[in-house]
Amino acid sequence: MQNDRLSDTNSCIPTSLSFVYMPLHLSLSPMAVYAALLSLARSLHQILHFEKYKEKNVSLHEKVHFILTFLEDYSDKYSGAIALLGDEIRRAAYEAQDFMESYLCSISANYSSSEKMALDQDLNIAVERIHFIWEEVVKMKNRDAADQDLRSRTHSSPVDDHSSTVPKKMVVGFDDELDAIKEQLYEGPTKLQIIPIVGMGGIGKTTLARKAYEDSLLAQHFDVCAWVTVSSEYQRRGILLQLLLSFEKLSTHHDELSRASDAQLAKLVYQNLVGRRYLIVIDDIWSTKAWDDLKLNFPNDGSTSRILLTTRLSDIAIHAAGSSCTWFHQMNVLNEDQSWKLLKERIFGQESCPLQLMEIGKKIARNCRGLPLTIVVVAGLLLSSGNLTKEETWENISENISSKEPTIELQCSKILCLSYDQLPLRLKPCFLYIAAFPEDSQIDVSKLIKLWVAEGFLKPSDHSKCLEDVGESYLEDLVNRSLLLVSQKGPDGKLEIVGIHDMLRDICIKKADEERFLSLVSSKWNAIKEFLENRNRRLRIHCKHDFQEWMIPVSSIRSVLLFSDRYYTTRLFIYCRRLSILDAPEATWPNFSDIISTFVNLRYIAFRLDETSCPHGFPASISRLPNLETIIAHIFNIRRLRIPCEILEMPKLRHLITNAPVRLSFASNRSPVVLHQSDLQTLETVVNYRFTEEAIKLVVNLKKLKVVFATPKGGWDDLNLDNLFRLQNLQELQVSVSSNPSMTWNHAFPASLVKLTLNGIPLPWERMDIIGSLPNLQVLEVIDTPGADASEWTPVEGQFLRLKYFFSTLDYLVKWEVEKEHFPSLESLILKHALWIDEIPCGVGEMDSLQLIELQNCTESLVNSAKEIEQQHHENGNDSFQVRVVKVLF
Description:
Arc Repressor Mutant, subunit A; alpha/beta; five-stranded parallel sheet; Single alpha-helices involved in coiled-coils or other helix-helix interfaces; 17-stranded parallel sheet; 17% strand; 890 residues
């Protein structure tokens, strides 16, 4: 029926849309229905501008959003009715979505008139079903409006209102244990000591180890400090790489290390530890085999080194410590007083608990059975309730966690399930998406939010708020509820890396499976059969072996997330052309350049750009994908790569990211043509971007730019750097110079900047007023400033008014005169290889806002001056002030 050209894309049009669905289940939860409608709304948005179906699709769009709003507001009250309609709603949503995607596929292929007629029939069926569901929902809402009592119905307010009152994470009941661990770390025999911490999941082993690891004396006492997480999915090679990449001098050698053999990696670990006093934290070790595989890499040469390990199994701790074990810490659950103290401090901080809540609060704490994880999760539930001091709120939670389960584990599981059940509907798909990430993953926040956007999970609260901002607020909400862990914050205080506790991850995976939200695959055996039988829209693949090939046939799958360690060889073959999301940055995809343009529904792609996948460089055909919003290219062994400027003209592109510098190729005989308001928000990393009038128009809405400058053929004037200040939406800018420039930087920066990083920029310290005048700047990093002569710098009062974080190497700066008024908001001063000055200026120590001075590879005199400042702060009662020293140069 179809010609050869259509054989690849014909999968976009099933003869009968109904065959792709599972048999009807009795019911589906509001979350499953909500997620399906969100995806439909996302697809509808893609084709609203097509005139042929515009009127019909606008009507459909309005009805879908009406149903979504109803679910958000009334899913608790009408959960039974929604459950009965659930399969019908999801089926209708998927049918409509399939039509939208099929229509987009038809644009890129010569479909016959009969096929186009079938598309119209499918759309009519989908519209009728959505209309029927809309009518039922309208009836439910009208009945509700008629009930006077429900007019006063209140809903949970967003947790954002309480986020400022959430106290810092505390270690309650562990003070004595923490002191004992520190004693073992800093004192005792010179031989290598193994320090085990043992306890059940959720009891606080990792928290306790982390508190010890973050002690301010640690970096001064040990030459090398490293933290590795083992987990139940242990892989020796991965642990060795974790260790090596945590060593400072090897941290930038990822590609070289990934090509080394296991034996070479093991040898490198040993060589970097021998003769040095080291501390290694091995978190969450599950087997004696894992310890036996690793122990030979740790030299025992009398250097007073220590290994701190956490495990749930006492047998492993005894085996690891062996006959040299002089200290063994078995963690116990908190007693009732400690439990109540932790709950109270998590909710009220240093304020007192209202008297009317004391009794019920102690009951809640008691029912948590002394497990810290359950206590902080329950605290998150109360904080997000929207009415923290209302007794009824506390009573409801107390009833839901009544201690009837026979074991602590079952009670904890019940509480964690409750934390999911109590989530607002808008947050549930976002939380379940975490199940896609492997165990103990360090989840990049920027990537996660981009995936949420592409999935359609985010709804702007108003027309002026962009989806990425909504994603940040959703993420903060999940963190404030203690469902996600903060692993790393940026210098501006924004979340950068998050994780999830193993027990919460188990709940997440369980719920994702129950809701038919996500399929998890980790074995290549019978994979094709699994994919064909799979009726979920999202697929997570975890490659655990080398030389795996994954063939994903035509199926209902719309999102594929493939996780593979960089040192594993993985090949990917995909035939379902209606794919919307593909995250496979480590997998090779043969013939990628030839076929990628047929995936017209793609909104997000992260791919490996190598000679196998893209033998002719960056595939220009990507620019023909009409719905693509995010492009993340991981470049391997390709130098001087050029990207055609047409990429920047894509109608919906929001993020273009490469892990290595690339050049934008502007044809000599044409200028960029801007036919629409650019949505591009992120552009990194580009070489010698020329800020001409036309080029500025292409990136006028940029929020983040990372650019590298090398000496251009036409000289520095050829780059039009005077136009840089015109990017008035730019918030983050990183500028690097890769060659020794002959010019002096004398160009203004955009006033909108919040974060600025300058690496190798020839900006004299005397001209720092160019930066100091930026009104919104909070984070400044000035690294490897070239110069020929010693310089002096006296900041201008009235500048740097909002600067909170300053990181610099202070190259060629021999005199730095600072008064407390010069940096009125400074909180963190980080100096690295600051060899030109002998001491921290006294004015720095007088700054009321300053909380941290960190010195990396600095001289002893500079360290001593910082210690004097620390002593002054502590004598004045500012115990939170800290000086952190990482290696002293004598």
